Amino acid sequence: RTFTERMAGRSGLLSLVRRAVPASVRPSRAMSTLRSLEGGMGAQRLPFGVCMAPPLARGVRKQSFGCIMATRHMATVTAERMRNIAVIAHVDHGKTTLVDKLMEECSEKVSMERAMDSLDLEQERGITIMAKVTSMDWKDTKINLVDTPGHADFGGEVERVMSMIDGVLLLVDAAEGPMAQTKFVLQKALKRGVRPIVVINKVDKSDSRISEVETDVFDLFVSLDATEDQCDFPIIYAAGRDGWADLAMDGPRMDMSALLDTIVEHVPPPKPDDRPEFAMSVIMLGRDDFVGRLLTGRVASGCAKIGDPIIALNAEGEKVDSGKVTKIYHRNGEKGIVELPEAIAGDLVQIAGLSKATVSDTVCHPTLTVPLKTVPIDPPTVCMSFSPNDSPVAGREGSKLTSQVIWDRLVKEAENNVSIAVEKNEKESSFDVYGRGELQLGILIENMRREGFELSVSPPQVLFKTVDGKKMEPIEEVTIEVDDEYQSVIVKKLSERKGQVLEIKESNEAGRTRITLTVPSRGMLGYRSIFFTDSRGTGILNRLYLEHQPYQGSIDNTRKGVLVSMATGKTTTYALKDIEPRGQLFIGPKVEVYPGMIVGENSRDDDLEVNPTKAKHVSNMRTTDGKDDIVQLVPPKVFNLEKAMAYIQQDEQIEVTPTEVRMRKRELDGNKRRVAG
Question: What whole-number percentage of the chain has pLDDT above 70?
Answer without folding.
Answer: 83
